């Protein structure tokens, strides 16, 4: 069953307007009958007209006042954007890019244009991509929620209801940051979009696939979030992804304070931005912007965006906050999105898979093995690349697509046939190289195929080992197969995949004399660590330890829509 927004406010307003029109029509008829009289009746008709005019003025004034009050309740003013109040403009998830044709603009989620100077802070690359994609959107107005599509996926177009805060204008997003990062959202105020009660009970997944052994299983529609983003609205006509409030562009510390926003500081100082809109089907690349290359000024080549599937491992208690926040922000930028959890929910979608050993952090490797087996079995031929990370990872899909397209263009290769292992390389000592699982890593289709063919090798691919070091295990297996990591730094040596949050990277310093050794420094000793604003490439792809759902939304706003010079 789809959750539908309440229409009580709309119904009430319609009934009032209808009643007002009926009264005016009745008075007009009465006045007409009087005006048809002569002699003394004419004098009475004149008086009746005066009375009618006075009454009409009163009714008109009441309607204007009522309409103004409604506008006040549903539209937030510029004056209220100051301070802690949440009353300010909201931002389309597509930023300055146009909404799909025919999209509804609802009272409870009114879309305003971004700040006039937003164009000044969005790169020319984004402008080029937007131009290329406008025609694609305008020429594809078919409703994706047609009977045939819903027969295949009855939950296509679902999103949880956007419940208004009972605090009204006094609600501030800052209160959402106060909860502990490990909370499940059940105590979060209405308006934070984190409370699992807003989801209701997860429906059973449809058994839509028959295995070779005759078993009926569920194979999720991993394109559903992408489909909704491209359409721009859910099945009920509400905006999707849901708009973000401009308050999220302000300085917000990790606990909601007005100072100490080191993440925003890093985004501003390192000039990190999205390389294009979430709904882009092309990317603009600079093939020389790779470490060891001589960068070519003004280089910009438009190519089709590669198809990427994003995989997230999580737990059921994160569905209502972290997974919802991903779904509401960056997940639609992936061509496929699927979370692997302890509970299946076809609306998100999340799926629970059986694997060897217990469900625990110390057995993460077996969970990840089950993920790769399932993905390789059902989606291998559908995507060019497969990106995996945890539920505390923030991703910029367009930046990932831009980097990967640039990589294969530079190399003159194809991810379907060329084996790539892409992420943030670490060296734990000797020949122990691996890509950080925290920062997320990517396998090309060719690499996933090779891994599937060899993943049950107990000697070289640790088929039965139970350990939390899934990133080390897969690296060891791929190295045995002759597949090595890719250096993902830009031409200036700045990193793109990050094992910490932005603020941590900006302010990281190596330990001083007499201080304990730092594992991060040790793992990067071969390449060194650039400090300050050079910590992070402007086209960075991912940041780890973004644990709070509210911080996911804050980061998404900062990196896509906000004027960081304010």
Describe the structure.
- The chain is 33% helix and 10% strand.
- By secondary structure, the chain is of the alpha/beta class.
- The strands form 6 sheets. A 7-stranded mixed β-sheet has the order 9-8-7-10-15-12-16, sandwiched between helices. A 3-stranded mixed β-sheet has the order 11-18-17, covered by helices on one side.
- A hairpin with a 5-residue loop joins strand 2 and strand 3.
- It is globular.
- The chain starts with 7 loop residues before the first helix and ends in a 6-residue tail after the last helix.
- The N terminus is likely disordered.
Quaternary state reads: single chain
- What can be said about the biggest beta sheet? 7 strands, mixed
Tally the beta strands.
18
Q: Overall pLDDT, averaged?
A: 83
Topology:
Layout lengths: L7 H28 L4 H35 L15 E2 L26 H4 L2 H15 L8 H6 L56 E2 L5 E2 L6 H8 L12 E2 L16 H8 L12 E4 L15 E4 L3 E6 L5 H10 L7 E6 L8 E3 L11 H15 L6 E6 L2 E3 L1 H15 L9 E2 L2 E3 L5 E3 L5 E4 H10 L15 H11 L4 E2 L10 E2 L3 H6 L11 H5 L18 E3 L4 H12 L6
Parallel strand pairs: 7-8, 7-10, 8-9, 12-16, 17-18
Antiparallel strand pairs: 1-4, 2-3, 5-6, 10-15, 11-18, 12-15, 13-14
What's this entry about, in short?
The protein has 566 residues and is an alpha/beta fold. The protein has helices at 8-35, 40-74, 118-121, 124-138, 147-152, 224-231, 262-269, 319-328, 364-378, 397-411, 445-454, 470-480, 502-507, 519-523, 549-560, and strands spanning 90-91, 209-210, 216-217, 244-245, 282-285, 301-304, 308-313, 336-341, 350-352, 385-390, 393-395, 421-422, 425-427, 433-435, 441-444, 485-486, 497-498, 542-544.
């Amino acid at each position: 069953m789809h959750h539908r927004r309440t229409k009580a406010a709309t119904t009430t307003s319609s009934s009032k307007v209808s009643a007002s029109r009926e009264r005016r029509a009745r008075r007009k008829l009465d006045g007409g009958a009087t005006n048809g009289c002569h002699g003394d009746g004419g004098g009475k008709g004149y008086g009746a007209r005066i009375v009618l005019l006075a009454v009409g003025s009163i009714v008109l004034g009441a309607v204007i006042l009522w309409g103004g009050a409604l506008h006040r309740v549903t539209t937030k003013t510029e004056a209220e954007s100051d301070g802690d109040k949440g009353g300010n403009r909201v931002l389309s998830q597509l930023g300055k890019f146009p909404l799909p044709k025919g999209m509804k603009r609802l009272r409870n989620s009114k879309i305003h244009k971004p700040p006039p100077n937003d164009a000044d802070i969005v790169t020319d690359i984004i402008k080029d991509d937007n131009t290329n994609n406008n025609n694609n959107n305008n020429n594809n107005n078919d409703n994706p929620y047609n009977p045939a599509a819903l027969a295949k996926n009855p939950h296509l177009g679902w999103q949880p209801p956007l419940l208004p805060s009972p605090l009204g204008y006094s609600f501030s997003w800052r209160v959402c940051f106060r909860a502990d990062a490990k909370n499940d959202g059940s105590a979060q105020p209405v308006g934070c979009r984190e409370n699992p009660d807003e989801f209701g009970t997860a429906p059973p997944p449809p058994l839509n696939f028959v295995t070779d052994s005759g078993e009926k299983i569920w194979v999720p529609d991993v394109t559903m979030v992408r489909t909704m983003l491209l359409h721009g609205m859910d099945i009920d006509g509400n905006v999707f992804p849901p708009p973000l409030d401009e308050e999220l562009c302000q300085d917000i510390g990790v606990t909601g304070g007005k100072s100490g926003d080191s993440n925003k500081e890093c985004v501003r100082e390192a000039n990190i931005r999205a390389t294009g809109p979430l709904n882009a089907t092309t990317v603009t690349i600079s093939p020389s912007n790779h470490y060891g290359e001589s960068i070519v000024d003004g280089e910009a080549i438009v190519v089709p965006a590669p198809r990427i599937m994003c995989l997230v491992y999580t737990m059921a208690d994160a569905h209502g906050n972290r997974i919802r926040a991903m779904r509401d922000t960056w997940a639609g930028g992936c061509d496929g999105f699927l979370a692997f959890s302890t509970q299946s929910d076809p609306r998100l979608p999340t799926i629970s898979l059986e694997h060897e050993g217990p469900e625990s952090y110390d057995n993460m490797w077996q969970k990840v093995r089950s993920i790769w087996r399932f993905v390789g079995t059902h989606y291998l031929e559908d995507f060019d690349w497969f990106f995996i990370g945890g539920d505390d990872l923030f991703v910029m899909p367009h930046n990932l697509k831009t980097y990967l397209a640039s990589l294969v263009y530079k190399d003159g290769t194809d991810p379907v046939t060329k084996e790539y292992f892409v992420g943030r390389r670490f060296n734990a000592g000797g020949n122990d190289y691996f890509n950080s699982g925290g920062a997320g890593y990517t396998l090309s289709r060719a690499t996933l195929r090779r891994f599937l063919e060899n993943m049950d090798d107990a000697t070289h691919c640790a088929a039965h080992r139970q350990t939390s070091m899934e990133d080390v295990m897969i690296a060891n297996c791929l190295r045995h197969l002759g597949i090595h990591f890719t250096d993902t730094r830009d031409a200036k040596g700045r990193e793109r995949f990050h094992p910490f949050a932005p603020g941590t990277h900006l302010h990281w310093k190596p330990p001083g004399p007499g201080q304990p050794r730092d594992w991060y420094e040790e793992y990067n000793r071969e390449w060194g660590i650039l400090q300050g604003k050079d910590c992070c490439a402007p086209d960075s792809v991912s940041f780890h330890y973004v644990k709070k759902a509210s911080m996911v939304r804050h980061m998404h706003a900062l990196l896509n829509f906000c004027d960081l010079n304010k």
